[in-house]
Amino acid sequence: MIRLTFHKLLARLGAFSAILATAGVLLNNPLHWWGFIAILSFILLQPLIEVPREIHVTRQISRQVNYVGQNCRVDVEIQVNKGIGPVVVADNLPEVCRLQEGSNFKLFWKGFLPLKTNYSYTITFPRTGKYYLGKFLWKSWDALGIRVGHTGETEEHQEIEVNPRLVPIKKMRNFVTYSRIPFPAGAKTAYGVPTLEIKDIRQYQYGDPHKFINWKATARNMYNVPIVNEFEREGKKTAWIFLDHSDNLQFGTSINDGREYALEAVNSMVSFFLQHNMKVGFCTFGWSSHLIYPASGYQQQWRIMRTLLDLNFLQTTKEAWKKEGAKKTQISLKKVLLKYKKYFLMQEPVNVIVSRAFPHNVYKFSEGIDEMIKFSHIPHGKPPLIFVNIAGHKLAAQDETEMLAGELLKARDRNNLQTLRRKVNWVEWDPTEMQFYKALKNMEVT
Questions:
Q1: Which residues face 444 on adjacent strands?
Q2: What is the pLDDT of residues 199-235, one digit of tens each?
Q3: Taking every pair of C-alpha atoms in the chain, what is the biggest distance, in angstroms?
Q4: Exposure of 426 by Cβ count < 10 A (0-12 exposed, 13-18 middle, 19+ buried)?
Q5: Where do runs of H (alpha helix) occur along 46-152?
Q6: Which CATH number fits domain 53-163: 1.10.10.10, 3.60.21.10, 2.40.10.10, 2.60.40.10?
Q7: What is the Cα–Cα distance from 89 to 153, expressed in whole angstroms?
């Protein structure tokens, strides 16, 4: 298309020079002759004019670490030293990348003097991961399209790290908890020296000191079993976050992806727990079983973030597993708990499961939750367990009919998951309707 335009320009210049020459003969006007000579000289000297080459392109990124959906500004500087003619420069962007403002394509004219120009554009990434801005592709043409131009590329690789969205969780005061965190039946500290603050009373267990016996409560106990006072212990409370890394979260579109919202929920809760001086542990089940032992501080958040980024590159499709000759099996939540049982004992943490429940996988989740309850000793059988269910029925909806179908499916699943909802503190999060911290406010406390 561009080359055809240059040929037309050459033909028009030739026709215009012929008109000027004819007008100069008929009218005997020197201006027509000078115009004819100038155009003819330009056409004859064109083969001596060099096609633009030695093109240098550099890129500057506003930030190397971004969050999902955050705008990132890219500034590009172009320098051409030799040649005359048009030049096109294009930035090779990742497929997932979305162009918000500007253009990654630049067309400009190189004149007689060295050229130095720049342009900018804004991009955003809808998914977590590590992305690479590849080479710049450029092409130059002869000014009149007589000769073949040059093509090339620049070695300008740069990496951008995209982390899950961090949504601040606001403090909620409508729950009575064991610890100062906005979740029901919060974490307890099983280690440390007992303080003078009474947490609860319970039946006597082997090894309890006799000085902890509550004689008044024991006298009122009809089963003649000693009742002891349970005191708060010094030390940090613990939270375990379990992320479902399986097909359960593979729904939505390439932009609105269920896995991306799961990472957002995990990242937000990790940040919240660590800010409240708690120890946070992380574990995955499904296609992988990564475990990070509970710790506190910025380093722990960095470890969990690195694991979340690595999960984005794991091959989880059936075709990829067939190519590797592996058997398509997933590790259930119960198997993960039994595998790392020694890490969960004597902690009595608050447990958070991030997944999506279906009627066909309720039994597997129930098995895992029953096994998780064994590690807790909260009175009245109320487990310190939160299930964050990411409802994605409307993520891929494009019209009102599909939105209505999503509402019907959502109501169907809600009715079929009643048994599982009664066992845990249920958080129903529909990313199309509300933010994550608002979903926590609507938590169904058992």
A1: 426
A2: 678 888 877 888 888 888 888 877 778 888 877 666 6
A3: 130
A4: buried
A5: none
A6: 2.60.40.10
A7: 9
